[in-house]
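User: Predict the full complex structure for these chains.
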Amino acid sequence: TQLLEQSPQFLSIQEGENLTVYCNSSSVFSSLQWYRQEPGEGPVLLVTVVTGGEVKKLKRLTFQFGDARKDSSLHITAAQPGDTGLYLCAGAHMKTSYDKVIFGPGTSLSVIP
Amino acid sequence: DTEVTQTPKHLVMGMTNKKSLKCEQHMGHRAMYWYKQKAKKPPELMFVYSYEKLSINESVPSRFSPECPNSSLLNLHLHALQPEDSALYLCASSQATRSSYEQYFGPGTRLTVT
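Assistant: Here is the predicted structure of the two-chain assembly.
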């Protein structure tokens, strides 16, 4: 069974703090996506990482794909209340079809003003 | 345009009602998905349509019936639902190619079964 694990499961921090969310698997990914979902809305695609060791930045968010393509991290600098939401990583393992994407369990982030 | 639209936004229905959820995308995607999501949990895949044909049914009860009238539209027909079916129902679409794993989600329909 191919699984994606995320940690931490829940995170509550003060505005202005930094945080890192992790996504791990025992298998190699073809690519990995990060989504953010605000309460009552659908997930919104933030980024796709494809190459091992790749780093992508989206304003205060930094995404990294592990060298072995088995893990990824999301770092948020100076968190703001607008960052509150459920962060989901998703991906497909090597040679799997587009309809075999699996989702991690999510990290629920709350940024307190 | 990366928008997926869903109607209605909210739906309250009794256990004997019949209703339908609708989803539309105009990105030319040939794969469309229905997911069910409970609060603070990841989306659970229900159905996948590829090129207007049902390719995946994740053992969903028959009270949920999907339909793909054309490449832009996806419906989910609901009948005789149970209170435990109350959830956020998400539609998504993606390119139907092996290397395209990015999915684009609609805002969801919040369903309450009374």
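Chain A has a mean pLDDT of 93.
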